[in-house]
Amino acid sequence: MKRIIFAMLIGLIGISACKTVDYDWENYKYTAVPIVTLDTAKSALATRQAAKVSFFNLKSADVGSQQFGFSLNWEGFGLVTVSSIEVYASYNKAEASVPGYPIVINYPGNQYPNIYQFPIPSVVKSTEKLYDTATTFPKTYSFTANELATLTGANLSTVEVNDYFLFKFILNLSDGRRIITFFNNVCDESRGEPGDCRVGVRFKNQ
């Protein structure tokens, strides 16, 4: 038995000695993630907190005064801290394939939507407008459809079903790092990951 254990140890030492490539992932660092709490009471149509999507209803005459709101915070898991979060806003036309409504909640444990609610990847583009740089948390945001249209340059008279306003976030960490994007899974509302890299409000006609 001792000979077998000795041989295994020698083998492991030999394997480690043969390592010739250093991979980027071996030098990982911890980061923080943005946390969004959606104001579900302000949605014109029923929604779920886990979906991170609110709705404006085009069938209503007062669509311009309908509201959208959320609270922004962060989580550093006791390892890193955030000095500020940049908040970017945009208006977007409906994508070719959109998630259905009502929202289907089925995974896991009837908590999360069956599909992500906005297109992935969720990267801040040069066309998206820097709306705010938050330095105190949690911070609450509230808008009407008219206010979002003014903010993003959209025309509510030409909005169509499934068009949407979207907010994305860039984190500035206290150690000087700037986290400009996250792996797709973190931005996928259907996975229940411990972070929310975007939140938005979509137009429906219900």
UniProtKB/TrEMBL annotation:
Top-rank lineage group of the source organism: Bacteria
Name used for this protein in its record: Lipoprotein
Source organism of this protein record: Arcticibacter svalbardensis MN12-7
